[in-house]
Design brief:
Keywords: Repeat
Organism: Pseudobutyrivibrio ruminis
Number of domains: 3
Largest sheet: 4 strands, antiparallel
Number of strands: 4
Protein name: Transcriptional antiterminator, BglG family
Strand content: 5-15%
GO molecular function, one term: RNA binding
Shape: elongated
Radius of gyration: 23 Å
CATH superfamily of the largest domain: PRD domain
Length: 275
């Protein structure tokens, strides 16, 4: 395959037979190479395939130290393997960019305070643990020690890639989840068992619930008979879900459907079951 553009000694832009632009990286892959030269396939360590190469990612690859690109890739790969799912390609831009700035700030002793750290630790426990592991990889491979706040930031990038969402909405989500949990606690005047399986399932449901809210794509109503049964079976949980509905409709333009109310009611009934 022929080089279309030399990004630096360790990265090249080329095209496949379908016209897709591909970024190839590898230590010294472009050393003394020019556009039109053949790539040595045995030097290729990573490929990034896109229908059209993203200019921001091209800029990152061409300007960031190769070791940092490798570390970002290792963090993403580890997160994907542990979550058991393929993450949205955009994480290669967002997380890599964040890593570069975090390392740059650390050199001047400047660190960002993560105001959502408590919420992230409590509502995105798996992703937070992946963020902590990211800090270990960075320390081991780059010799840079970043504070716990950065584990929270990396966790948000992972959450965003899981949901294929907008990072700004993803950063708002922990606060919204916290508000919803507060509504449940206030309605029932109880503390919730945060170690229970039902609580964990509810938090997972809320993550995707907020993704649907962001996209104006709530579940469509299915069987109204089932919704009526749930309302009668769990009146207190339905009352709580109604409060959440009012709160959500103050945040998002789309009205909650009966199907969304059904799921909220069932989850609330589960996490507040005193028996």
């Amino acid at each position: 395959m022929k080089i279309k553009k030399v990004l630096n000694n360790n990265a090249a832009l080329a095209s496949d037979e379908n016209g897709n632009e591909i970024i190839y990286t590898g230590c010294g892959i472009c050393f003394q190479k020019r556009p039109g030269d053949e790539l040595e396939e045995n030097k290729i360590e990573k490929t990034f395939v896109m229908e059209k190469a993203n200019e921001q990612f091209l800029k990152l690859v061409s300007e960031m130290p190769y070791e940092e690109i490798q570390v970002a890739d290792e963090i993403i790969k580890y997160a994907s393997e542990n979550l058991g799912k393929r993450l949205c390609n955009n994480i290669y831009i967002t997380l890599t960019d964040h890593l570069g700035f975090a390392i740059e700030r650390s050199k001047s002793g400047t660190f960002l305070k993560n105001k959502l750290l408590w919420e992230i630790k409590n509502y995105y426990k798996v992703e937070y643990n992946l963020g902590c592991h990211a800090l270990e990889i960075i320390k081991d491979k780059l010799g840079v020690e970043l504070p716990e706040d950065e584990a929270g930031f990396f966790a948000l990038h992972i959450v965003n890639a899981e949901l294929d969402g907008n990072i700004h909405h993803t950063m708002e989500a922990p606060e919204i989840i916290d508000d919803i949990i507060s509504i449940v606690k206030y309605t029932y005047k109880i503390d919730l068992d945060e170690d229970s399986f039902s609580y964990e399932r509810f938090i997972t449901h809320l993550k995707y619930f907020l993704q649907r809210a962001e996209r104006n794509a709530y579940y469509e109503p299915q069987d109204p008979g089932i919704f009526e049964i749930i309302m009668e079976r769990f009146p207190e949980a339905y009352n709580c879900a109604t409060r959440i509905k009012s709160y959500m409709e103050s945040k998002y333009p789309e009205k909650l459907t009966d199907e969304e109310m059904l799921y909220l009611t069932v989850h609330i009934a589960r996490i507040t079951d005193r028996d």
